[in-house]
Structures are given as C-alpha cells and as structure tokens.
C-alpha cells in the first residue's frame, strides 16, 4: 500500500470497489438516508449518521497475511441512537433527529470520542470496549438480590474474567439550548479543549467540560429580521491555529476570524470573495454562489469551498479571488430554473481533501462523484452503483454528454437522476480509501492493490 | 424526494399555453425574459408558503428565495415607473436606457432595453417563449443575454404597445381600483385577479407540486394576503417570520370602504351601497371570507344588528 503522501497522481490511481453497506431495497426508508460520513484521525474508524438519528461506526479489521487483497475491510463496530425527534412546543414544530454532522476527537486512551449533532443539540459520545467482566461477588445472590449482611462472613474480591467483546456507546455530554436556528457545522479546535457549533446566524464556542454555557463568537442576526439577506452556511477551525476559524455564507463569501482580536468576532480578519463574472449572471447567481461546505486543507494553508456548480481552493493570503476553480457539473447551468423549481438547487454538497491535499473530491447527481487532482489538473467522474459492485472491480470513469452526439458510454444531461445525489463523502486521512454515501448506501472504494 | 428531478412532458402544459396573450409586436426575447421572471416569481412565492408544516423551514432557503423575490420586485418597480413614459411612444431609445442605467436594478443589464423588443435581435422561435419552467432552460434565458443594440438606425415601431403580461395587468388593476396603492385589500384583490389570470398561465400549472392542486389553491389566498400594500415585499414581515393562520384571519382589514355615513341610516335598516363599490368590496372580501359571495347580491348593513353586537361587547 503506497503511503498517500507521495505520488498520488490521478493517472496512477485506479479506484476499485471494496464494500457497500446498506440495503438494496427499491423503496428507501427515509430514516436510513445517510446524512454524514467521517473517518476518525487514524482512519481506523468510519462513522455515519442518518436521518433517523442513528450513528453507525465501522472499524477497519486488521490486515491479515492470509488475505492481503482484502486490505482491511470495514465492519460494523457500534450502532447507537444518538438523537431522538423532539417537539418544540413553543413553535409547534418538530425538531428533526437527523444527524447533521459527526466530528471525531483525537484519541487519548482506549476509548473513542465523537461529537454528533442534529439541528439543535450537540452530544459528546464515548465509545468504549468491554471484554472483561467482574465475577465472584458474594454480596449478592445469583439473581442479584442483596444478601443479608449478617449472613456474610467473608469478603471476596471479584475477579475479572474475559467475556465476549461488547462495544458501548454512552453520551457523556449534552450541549443543548444554545441554538435558536439550525446547526449546520461543528468543528473541534486544535487545542482539543474547545469546539464550535454554527447555526444560520450564530457561532458558539464550547468547552467540552461545560455544557450549560457557551460563548457566542459570531452573531450576524440583524436587529430587524426583515433585513436579513445572508446566513452562515458552514464553519471550521484552522487545523493548527486554535485562535483561527473560517465561516462561509449564502452569498458566496468566506470570513476568516481571529479570536484573539475580540470576544465577538463579528469583524473578520480576512474576507474572501470572488467578483461576479458578468457574463454568467442570471436570476440564480446568488443561489448558486451560496457555499455549502468549507474545509481547511490538512496543511492549513488553503481553504476549499463548495458552491452549487464549482469547488474552489483559496489561498489564505489571497482574498480577492480563489486560487483554483473546478467545475463539478457545469452542464447544469442551463437547467437552473428546473433545479430551482424542484429544490435541487438548494442541495448542500460537501467536499473533502485527500491526506496530502493533492486531490479533492465532491459529489454530484446520478450517484456520480468527482475527483480533481490539483497538480496535474486532471479530473475524473466515478459512479457509486450496485452494478459496479463486484469485489475489487475497477471503477470506470463516467462522462456526461452535454449536447450533440452521445457516445456509447456517455449519459445525457436529461437522463441524470437528480434523486440520486452524493452529498457526503470522506477520505481516509492517510490512505487512498474513500467512503461515499449514496442515499441509504455507503460505498467504500480503495485504490488498486498491485 | 418523490417527483423531484422527474421529467415533465411538454404536452401537459400545452393547453394552458394557448391562453397566453402575447402582443404581436413583442420580441420573443423580451416576452421570454418577462415570462421567466414571472415564473420564477411564482415559483418563489409557492416555495415560501408550501413548505412542510411539520418542521421549521430552512432559514437559508427562505432567505435566498426572499432575496430572489426582492430582486424581481425591484425590477418590476423600476419597469413600472418607466411605463408611462414609454406609452407616449415614438420616443428615442436612449432616454429610457439612460434612466434604466441610472436606476441600476439587480438585473439591469438583462433588462436594459426591455420595452423596446424590436431592437432585440434574437433567433429564439416564439414557441420557445411559451414554455413551462423546465423548458425555459435555454442558454439565452438563464444566463445573461447579450442584448444587441442596433443603435439609432433601428427605431421602435410607432404604435408599440407596452408588454402586457398578467403582472402588468395586475398592477394596472391596482391603479384602477384604488388611487392610493397603500390599501392592502386593493393589492390583494388585484393580486387575486392576477392569480386568477396566472391560473390559466402555463407556468402556474407547471409549478404545482406533486401534492396536488388543492394545496396550491389554498395557498394562494394565503400568500396573496401576506403581500402588504404597495406590493413592497421588502417591508413584508410575512417571509421571514412564522406565518400562521392567525396572521391571516386577524389581519387588519381596511374598513374604509364600508364605513357607513350616519346620514343614510335615515333611509332604513338596510343601507344599500352603490353596486360598483359593492362589487369591489366583495372582491376584496373574497380572500378573507370562507363562503363564496355572489357579486350580484347587494351588500346590506343592518344597523340594529350592529347595535346589538355593541351592547353585547359593552356588556350591558
């Protein structure tokens, strides 16, 4: 297995199907729709959250000499109900249990910790293993009833005996009642003591130990809600500088803030916005400029943003325009009115970096996902489908035909299935392993083993 | 999820298309632009009021749709303010263009010469203009149109009619109904009329969601009511705050039209109002009442009944 830091050039990597999780039923249960995917910092664990409020964690099995081609498959490690649906009695509205985001904490001991959030409440979960059980108590009967103390004449120390491995998930902290609007992002700070949660109008800073208080660090709510024209769409801490974070907006802007400057970071340190291209202006210019995801590179030097049609890479030192712009599915530009009508224009696609920041990936429609190599400027479109699901089958690049003659393997824009959207993907921190969520199925692809 | 992305057939909307009146002097591009703008406006309004009632709507989506509506409304306002100048016709293009450029609405470069369609060079066939939302997609519409100015050599035809779509006629009706356009119910009535026109309009049927017609019909009086006076969406509180049924039922009604003159009480218990104003009144009352009101029935005010109610309220 090549370490992902070197030579991750597109032409060298052939992506193969590895696994798929989830049912093949024609009718998808809404609760099973995957709403977030995240590897932990070592890549040993892969967590998914779904619309039903459940979290499923997969663990990579140890690679075995006997079956080198299996390359460490991911198997279910733990499943738990993270959030339940709630009812806001004041507004007479339901609060969805859908898991919007999962973020892992770095590991300090044998247990794993992750943050999961729905629209209103963030929870810290501890996932730990239990493979021993104390036995030999003489204070209780066989059926657990306490024995009469006067009948006990000796003190026996219980002995730990092995048992079948049990993985427990327990909620250790619940951070509630801090968000009036819907939480769209959570981000763990590099100090590992604090994290932030962002909703449409505010960003709060939490200490992991304190659940009844949070600091509000960004507030863009206008005094008069009728004047509201812009909302926060995503936020993330800098990977190394614990005082720095960015947040994106529905107008296509990114603000970088320094928490050392003031307690309330309403004034940005840097403001990133690309001037509008007049030749591309349309009714939908603002909507397609709305940023759906923002991600720092692992190096911390760049920020990647995803809007409806493009992925952009920004240099933190250059505010007036992005360094690189990649077209994800520009053929949709002439379909924006339909996509506005059926709400697809509001789909929030995420984007991810690979471990070496050389390749970026994002999803599209028809269960397509796209990868862009920043060095070679080559890109590829792949598909997550059951048809390509033979073990270790190499994924064939897909192509959308824009007009005119359609070649044999191409698919025309009008044949795209807009209900099959890949919004959530994840890339292993150091290897060429990717997880792609296609509605209720999770696909895992790996690069080809020679 | 269901129904999204499904291809809609052109056949479904063909019946509604014939009803559209297109002035023969209109260039296809101008009509298409106006058509698309109106379509998007209608779609946007439907979106704001047809969301799933169980959970809170996405604030981001609401804000984006609201911004869209504001932009379109700004454009309409600017175009509306220029129409009287245009009707006198045979005017050179430049003054209008200048005033447009000064105003600089959001899509000014698209609307640069909207009232002079003869100048627009477009090869788009007329059929392409009469299309529902999905088929409006064309690079010419959704992206910026490079409006070609042929310059002073091409003068507009002398008897050029202003573009008449149901929106313009709605605005005209507002002006006819009530000289002070601030009265909410006049706008509601005109908008209601526009909605009626729009119902025949293909885009209206095109944008109906799979949930079916009744829901959208029920939504119409609701959304029309929330349009306040002056058609100023920017001053509306309806988009960004929760709009409940209470807001509509207990919305202030301008009672100036049926305030009765004490002098007429001498004629008897029933004071009849002039038929013209009664019809108008009924039209304005239509959104608020759940019962159908027949326009032919004269409106009766029973003074003794009112006295009785007052007694009950005062608690005598």
TrEMBL record, chain A:
Transmembrane segments: none annotated. One of its GO terms (molecular function) is protein phosphatase regulator activity. GO terms for cellular component: protein phosphatase type 2A complex. The keyword Repeat applies. The keyword Repeat applies. Keywords: Repeat, WD repeat. InterPro entries: PP2A_PR55, PP2A_PR55_CS, WD40/YVTN_repeat-like_dom_sf, WD40_repeat_dom_sf, WD40_rpt. Belongs to the phosphatase 2A regulatory subunit B family. This is Serine/threonine-protein phosphatase 2A 55 kDa regulatory subunit B. It comes from Casuarius casuarius. The gene is Ppp2r2b.
UniProtKB/TrEMBL annotation, chain B:
Residues 33-80 form the SERTA domain. One of its GO terms (cellular component) is nucleus. Residues 8-18 have a biased composition (Basic and acidic residues). Residues 1-29, 188-217 are annotated as: Disordered. This is SRTD2 protein. It comes from Casuarius casuarius (Southern cassowary).
């Amino acid at each position: 297995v090549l370490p992902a830091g070197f030579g991750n050039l597109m032409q060298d990597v052939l992506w193969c199907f590895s696994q798929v999780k989830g049912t093949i039923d024609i009718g998808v249960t809404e609760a099973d729709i995957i709403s977030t995917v995240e590897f932990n910092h070592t890549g040993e664990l892969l967590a998914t959250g779904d619309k039903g409020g459940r979290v499923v964690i997969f663990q990579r099995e140890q690679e075995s000499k006997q079956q080198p081609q299996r390359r460490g498959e991911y198997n279910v490690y733990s499943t738990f109900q993270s959030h339940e649906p709630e009812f806001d009695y004041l507004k007479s509205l339901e609060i969805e249990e859908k898991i919007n985001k999962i973020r892992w904490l770095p590991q300090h001991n044998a247990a794993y910790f992750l943050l999961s959030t729905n629209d209103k409440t963030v929870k810290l979960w501890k996932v730990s293993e239990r493979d021993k059980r104390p036995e030999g108590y003489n204070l209780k009967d066989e059926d657990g009833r306490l024995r009469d103390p006067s009948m006990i004449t000796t003190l026996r120390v219980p002995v730990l005996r092995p048992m079948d491995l049990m993985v427990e998930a327990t909620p250790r902290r619940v951070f509630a009642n801090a968000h009036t609007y819907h939480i769209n992002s959570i981000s763990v700070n590099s100090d590992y003591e604090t994290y932030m949660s962002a909703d449409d109008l505010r960003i709060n800073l939490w200490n992991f130990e304190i659940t009844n208080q949070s600091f509000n660090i960004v507030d863009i709510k206008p005094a008069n809600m009728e004047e509201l024209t812009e909302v926060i769409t995503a936020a993330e801490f800098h990977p190394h500088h614990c005082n720095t974070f960015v947040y994106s907006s529905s107008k296509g802007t990114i603000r970088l803030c320094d928490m050392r400057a003031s307690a309330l970071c309403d004034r940005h340190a840097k403001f990133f916005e690309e001037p509008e291209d007049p030749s591309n202006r349309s009714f939908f210019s603002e909507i397609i400029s709305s940023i759906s995801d923002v991600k720092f590179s692992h190096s911390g030097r760049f920020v990647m943003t995803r809007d409806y049609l493009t992925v952009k890479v920004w240099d933190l030192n250059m505010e007036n325009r992005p360094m690189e712009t990649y077209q994800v599915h520009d053929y949709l530009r002439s379909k924006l009115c339909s996509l506005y009508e059926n709400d697809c224009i509001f789909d929030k696609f995420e984007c991810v970096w690979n471990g070496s920041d050389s390749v970026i990936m994002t999803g599209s429609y028809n269960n397509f996902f796209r990868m862009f190599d920043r060095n070679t400027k080559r890109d590829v479109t792949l598909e997550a489908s059951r048809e390509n699901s033979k073990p270790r089958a190499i994924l064939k690049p897909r192509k959308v035909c824009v007009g005119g003659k359609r070649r044999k393997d191409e698919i025309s824009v009008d044949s795209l299935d807009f209900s099959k959207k890949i919004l959530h993907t994840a890339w292993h921190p150091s290897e060429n392993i990717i997880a792609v969520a296609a509605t209720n199925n999770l696909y895992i692809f790996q690069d080809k083993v020679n | 999820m269901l129904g999204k992305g499904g291809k809609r057939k052109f056949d479904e909307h063909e019946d509604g298309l014939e009803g559209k009146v297109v002035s023969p002097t209109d260039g296809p591009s101008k009509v298409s632009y106006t058509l698309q703008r109106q379509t998007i406006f209608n779609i946007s309004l439907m979106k704001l009021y047809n969301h799933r009632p169980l959970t809170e709507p996405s604030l981001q989506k609401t804000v984006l749709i609201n911004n869209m509506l504001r932009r379109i409304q700004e454009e309409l306002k600017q175009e509306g303010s220029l129409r009287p100048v245009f009707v006198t016709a045979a005017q050179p293009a430049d003054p209008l263009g200048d005033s447009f450029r000064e105003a600089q609405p959001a899509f000014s470069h698209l609307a640069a010469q909207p009232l002079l369609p003869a100048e627009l060079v477009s090869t788009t066939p007329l059929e392409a203009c009469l299309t529902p939302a999905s088929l409006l997609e064309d690079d010419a519409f959704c992206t910026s149109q490079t409006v070609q100015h042929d310059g002073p050599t091409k003068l507009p035809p002398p008897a050029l009619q202003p573009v008449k779509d149901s929106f313009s006629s709605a605005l005209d009706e507002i002006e006819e109904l009530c000289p002070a356009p601030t009265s909410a119910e006049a706008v509601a009535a005109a908008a209601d009329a526009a909605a009626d026109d729009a119902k025949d309009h293909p885009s209206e049927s095109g944008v109906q969601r799979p949930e079916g017609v009744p829901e959208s019909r029920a939504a119409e009086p609701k959304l029309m009511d929330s349009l306040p006076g002056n058609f100023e969406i920017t001053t509306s509180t309806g988009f960004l705050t929760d709009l409940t049924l209470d807001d509509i039922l207990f919305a202030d009604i301008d009672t100036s039209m049926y305030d009765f003159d004490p002098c007429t009480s001498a004629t008897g218990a029933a004071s009849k109002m002039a038929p013209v104003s009664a019809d108008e009144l009924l039209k304005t009352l239509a959104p608020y009442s759940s019962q159908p009101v027949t326009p032919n029935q004269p409106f009766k005010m029973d003074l003794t009944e009112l006295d009785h109610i007052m007694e009950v309220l005062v608690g005598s």
